[in-house]
Amino acid sequence: MIMEENYPEGKCAADYADEKPSDVRELIRVGKITGETSGMCADYAQANLVVLPQKYAYDFLLFAMRNPTACPLLEVTDMGSRKLNEMAENADIATDIPLYRIYRDGVLTEEVTDVSDYWRDDLVSFLIGCSFSFEGEMLKADLPVRQIEEKCNVPMYNTNIKCREAGIFKGNMVVSMRPMPKQHVMKAALVTAEMPRVHGAPIHIGDPGAIGINDINKPDYGDPVEIREGEVTMFWPCGVTPQAAVMASKPDFCITHSPGHMFITDVKNVNLKYREAWRI
Amino acid sequence: MIMEENYPEGKCAADYADEKPSDVRELIRVGKITGETSGMCADYAQANLVVLPQKYAYDFLLFAMRNPTACPLLEVTDMGSRKLNEMAENADIATDIPLYRIYRDGVLTEEVTDVSDYWRDDLVSFLIGCSFSFEGEMLKADLPVRQIEEKCNVPMYNTNIKCREAGIFKGNMVVSMRPMPKQHVMKAALVTAEMPRVHGAPIHIGDPGAIGINDINKPDYGDPVEIREGEVTMFWPCGVTPQAAVMASKPDFCITHSPGHMFITDVKNVNLKYREAWRI
Predict the structure, then answer these.
(1) Could you tell me if B83 and B167 lie in one domain?
(2) What percent of chain A has pLDDT over 90?
(3) Which residues, 6+ apart, have CB-to-CB distance to B207 below 8 Å?
(4) Residue environment code for B204-241, b if the CB has 16+ CB neighbours within 10 A, otherwise e
(5) Do both A15 and A87 map to the same domain?
(6) CATH code at B175?
């Protein structure tokens, strides 16, 4: 159920750019914020969520390990636990995301702002890195991010790049596309390559047809964006990949975040450059 | 059983420095080579092996995911399979390592050159990155690697750095130590940081006491090496960490490589710098 007012006192997401993640999660937890999180707590990483029963957890963990660019795991919880140990303190996975989706046998059945009533002792939560993190670094490096300029969703495409299978999970990689002035292509590749925990370097640069994309103006997910004269299309592995693989395998129960409604972590984007060193 | 002659025709490991990995694996497979692999196929990555029954595989995979610097996974096989899909072609995990160890309830019971007779349909194999790979890059960068100069094993130490627990697996990190002339410390840190899939950057530089090492001249594993005037002790996460965690949890059955007797992959060390890009 989406509330008509998604933010208190007529505010918008950008008004929370400088807030502490724990403060924003508190507002989300009590239902005062139910809207999209893009732009909130600007320096901090946001994450995708996939929650599965334990019987699917090994296959999914193996799928992520075998496809780390599309499915960069930030944290995996202990079975049944709603707490995180690494990416956030005093967080509750079942309440701290503004909007969740419930899937049964691969079919979206409910969209809710709190999954406490759906929680089970056999659930395992997977937090997955999100391209919001590297887009922040791109903007700081004066690189254009077209879908932010156009205030729409990033264009995403199915490709012919096969993921490595793991148990019941398989599928092709989904990619996101950002057009780049040709003189900035190398810089964009290097800036994002420094952040492997949030998808990292582009998986392909240039000819969309080479990875099975027939019409760049018709994305399979998200919105089309303008590609200007002299710009090169750059493609990054996308976090929709694991979600698509999960849905295609039709697990009997699954919880995810609703697109754009992410989990806001306590870890700054800049720290995701340093792999594990920040965790000591 | 270790054969008295570990290499054919009076050769030593270094005589195989320029051989193709598939050719050396063939000699290992048929029992002509049963010795240590350090120095063989010099440009190619070698890997640690841990083989566990499926019932332990989720916990171990999660332990590796939560402790990626100590336990950098290169490949995880499908249950029961002796084949690899990514790190080597036409390899057989059960025959292509010169010497294996069999553990029952955490106790070493046999050391054998072939584990075909021990294979079971429920076994999962984990290939884990090895510091041989980054030492090769250090030598190319004119950095000293003391235990290679002294022709002994690298000194390794138990520390007070707690690993993140996962199911039945827990323990403290084991580190390897390489002393470095103080003017080369930064270079050594940067060269190894470029190779996160084989332990990556040092976990600690300087004061051994700060990570719980009381006597640097008494390593817990391997051999002591000389630390010269003006040298700084540098510590890296060590692949003994996951093996120690596995043994401490006493799984009813486990196969590993015997120390120094590694699996030789088809993937060049240099390609491990590039995370996943080489796999496309």
Answers:
(1) no
(2) 80
(3) none
(4) bbeebeebebeebeebebbebbebeeebbbbbbbbbbb
(5) yes
(6) 3.30.2040.10
Distance from CA of B58 to the nearest CA of A (A): 5
A21 and A102 share one domain? yes
Q: Which two tokens stand for residue B243?
A: 């093996």
Residue B269's CATH number = 3.40.1640.10
Q: B61 and A65: CB-CB below 8 Å?
A: yes
- DSSP letters along A37-51, please? -TTSSTTEEEEEEEE
| CB within 8 Å: B203 and A280 | yes
Is residue B97 pLDDT above 70, yes or no? yes
Q: Alpha-carbon distance A169 to A280, whole Å?
A: 33
What confidence score (pLDDT) does residue B276 get? Answer: 53
Number of domains composing chain B: 2
Shared-domain flag, residues A16 and A116: yes
Tokens of A227: 């590609």
Q: Residue A223's domain spans which residues?
A: 142-242
**Other beta carbons less than 10 A from residue A43's beta carbon:** 14
Q: Are residues A127 and A15 in the same domain?
A: yes
* Position B280 in a domain: no
pLDDT(A134) > 50: yes
CB contact under 8 A, A203 and B280: yes
Residue A63 within any structural domain of the chain: yes
Q: Between residues 154 and 173 of chain B, which touch chain A (CB distance below 8 Å)?
A: 161, 164
- Residue B279 maps to a domain: no
Are A155 and A257 found together in one domain?
no
DSSP string of A147-187? HHHTTSPPPEEEEEEEPPPBTTB--EEEEEEEEEEGGGHHH
Q: Is B69 on the interface with A (CB under 8 A)?
A: yes
Strands A44-53 and A254-257: antiparallel
Do residues B101 and B143 share a domain? no
Q: B73-90 in b/e burial notation, b at 16+ Cβ within 10 A?
A: bbbbbebeebebebbbee
Nearest Cα to Cα of residue B266 among B71, B60, B12, B26? B26
CA B5 to chain A, closest CA, distance in angstroms equals 39
| Average pLDDT of the residues in B32-60 | 95
Rounded to the nearest integer, the mean pLDDT of chain B is 92
pLDDT band at A234 (very low <50, low <70, confident <90, very high): very high
Question: Residues B167, B62: contact at Cβ < 8 Å?
Answer: yes
DSSP code, position A3: -
Residue B84: which residues within 8 A CB-CB, separation 6 or more? B75, B77, B91, B93, B127
The conformation of residue B78, written as its DSSP 8-state character, comes to P
Structure tokens at A246: 């999960």
A68 has a chain B CB within 8 A of its CB: yes
Q: Could you tell me which residues are beta bridge partners of residue B100?
A: B112, B257
ipTM for the whole complex: 0.86
Residue B14 pLDDT: 83
Note whether residue A136 is domain-resident.
no
Residue B58 with chain A: CB contacts under 8 Å:
57-58, 61
